[in-house]
Specification:
Number of helices: 6
Strand content: 15-25%
Shape: globular
Order of helices and strands: EHEHEEEEEHEEHEHEEEEEEEEH
Length: 360
């Protein structure tokens, strides 16, 4: 790893997941040179974005839609192989093919105002002074842990989806899975095969989506998430407004009672969880499948947050600072959305570099 004082560049891309690699590809397309005019920084130890950290039992065939990166299709993948391996190898080949020269592992500590209308990106390998920033840091680094009375008294194990190792470690145990999203249902269907008991707890009754999910439904879902971002509210995931896909595996799990949902408990006890009506469940493990939040703390010195708690974004541009673009954020936090956001961000950044777009 190189260590230097301050290095000047046109663009810094933070994150080498789907959105960051898409942005890097399009930066090359407009004539910017990797590691000369722009740099891609990634804190992960190897290529693959957040996919490299997914549990081994999440095979590629179980992934809910993986759109290829621009300029290079993902073909011939083995559905039975872990998604972490398939997508990790694909991202690795992609970086090599387009010579993106990703710097890793590099931690980005903060982005601050610099001199000459540049942003200072403070990292573990030095400071970059950049004319524009594309932040593609996703959500994996910020798992959301709800807090409930008595949580610290629980004698069993608590873990989040981010640390889920697969079902084998839970053989013969009683497991409470908290969360009504896709990860929660996937965990339950796996755990039901090995655990002594599983219990599914969600804040709201889950909504299962039957039938095709076409472009019209997709646009409507993205629009709902996009509106929150425009208002400066913390973004929801696209999946949170689409409902859970009802496939054969889910139908079977429902028939077997695996997906019989319980309402949210009132408190956690040393032995398990308890509801206000007196009902209790004993458990060895509580698995929090409660989602993630946007990893944007590195942008805090720029004061981009609105009173509602989120960052207002139009297309991909931060409303409070035209030099900053967020991709894989809110409506673009899906594989196809990340691709489009990478292209849109580079168009805007290119106008800025050409003097057409003026920072505000």
């Amino acid at each position: 790893m190189n260590n230097f004082g301050t290095r000047e560049l046109d663009v810094v891309v933070i994150g080498a997941g789907q959105a960051g690699l898409s942005a890097a590809y399009h930066l090359r397309r407009v004539g910017l040179r990797p590691d000369h005019d722009f740099v891609v920084l990634d804190h992960a130890p190897r290529p693959g974005g957040a996919w490299q950290f997914r549990w081994p039992s999440l095979t590629y065939g179980k992934v809910h839609g993986m759109h290829s990166l621009p300029g290079m299709e993902l073909t011939g993948a083995d559905d039975s192989s872990p998604s972490s391996e398939v997508i990790g190898a694909y991202f690795d080949a992609y970086e090599s093919r387009f010579g993106l020269q990703v710097h890793r592992p590099v931690d980005v500590n903060a982005v601050r105002e610099g001199e000459g209308n540049r942003l200072l990106v403070e990292t573990s390998e030095g400071t970059y002074a950049t004319r524009a920033l594309i932040s593609a840091t996703g959500t994996w680094d910020r798992p959301f842990w709800p807090r409930y009375p008595g949580q610290e008294t629980f004698r069993g194990r608590q873990l989040h989806t981010a640390d889920y190792p697969g079902p084998a470690e839970f053989a013969g145990l009683r497991v409470v899975v908290v969360g009504g999203g896709a990860s929660g249902t996937q965990h339950l269907m796996e755990l039901a095969e090995v655990a002594a008991e599983t219990y599914w707890v969600t804040r709201r009754p889950p909504v299962f989506r039957e039938g095709p999910f076409g472009e019209e439904q997709g646009r409507a879902a993205v629009a709902m998430v996009e509106e929150r971002v425009r208002l400066g509210l913390p973004p929801q995931s696209v999946v949170s407004v689409t409902g859970l896909p009802l496939n054969d595996a889910v139908r079977h799990a429902r028939e077997q009672g695996v997906l019989d949902r319980l309402p949210l408990f009132e408190r956690i006890t040393p032995e398990g969880v308890a509801w206000s009506d007196g009902r209790t469940v004993e458990a060895d493990t509580i698995l929090w499948a409660t989602g993630f939040r946007a990893a944007v703390d590195h942008l805090a010195p720029l004061k981009l947050r609105e009173p509602g708690g989120g960052i207002r974004v139009e297309n991909t541009r931060a409303v409070r600072d035209a030099r900053v673009h967020l991709v894989g954020y809110g409506p673009s936090a899906s594989t196809i959305g990340a691709n489009r956001a990478g292209r849109a961000a580079v168009r805007s950044v290119n106008r800025l570099l050409d003097g057409v777009g003026v920072p505000v």
